[in-house]
From TrEMBL:
Chief location category: membrane
Cellular compartments annotated: Membrane
Location of the Major facilitator superfamily (MFS) profile domain: 1-135
Keywords: Membrane, Transmembrane, Transmembrane helix
Keyword Membrane: yes
One MF annotation (Gene Ontology) recorded for this entry: D-glucose transmembrane transporter activity
Membrane topology value: Multi-pass membrane protein
Spans through the membrane: 20-42, 48-70, 82-105, 111-129
Name of this chain's protein: GTR2 protein
PANTHER family the UniProt entry points to: SOLUTE CARRIER FAMILY 2, SOLUTE CARRIER FAMILY 2, FACILITATED GLUCOSE TRANSPORTER MEMBER 2
Annotated organism of origin: Nothocercus julius
Amino acid sequence: FLQLFLVEKAGRRSLFMSGLMGMLVSAVAMTVGLALLSQFAWMSYVSMVAIFLFVIFFEVGPGPIPWFIVAELFSQGPRPAAITIAGFCNWTCNFIVGMCFQYIADLCGPYVFVIFAALLLAFFLFAYFKVPETKGKSFEEITAAFRRKKHSTIRGAKAMTELEDLRGSEEA
């Protein structure tokens, strides 16, 4: 419930990335806690706090924010299909993790969360370089930002301003 107010105040991209980074740090803390549990009894508390923080950071960022972003990245026509694909990917990954976690935990032991930390780092880097901020922007502004990125990556191409880009799309 609080996420609705927080997302409008802080922005989607920043919440998403801070949630991913918080989950990454929590996964590393869980790994350290589990690895050192046999040497220090108090590491069980570190692991418990890390689990709670992991869930909190998930609820702040990667839990709800992708649904906001997917809804804002697509126009009215393809939006239902995009949300369906996003939901399918989300639940398929949840199913795979749920079905495989015990086997991976048996195989990796206390280092099972290193896999999650590596994936979270990859997701963070992807979000940093590819996910735009959609707060307060119309669909046309978001589309123009993607076009500018596409045009600026072409060698020797001059990046268009938003106004030029929008004017060009109206003529087409």
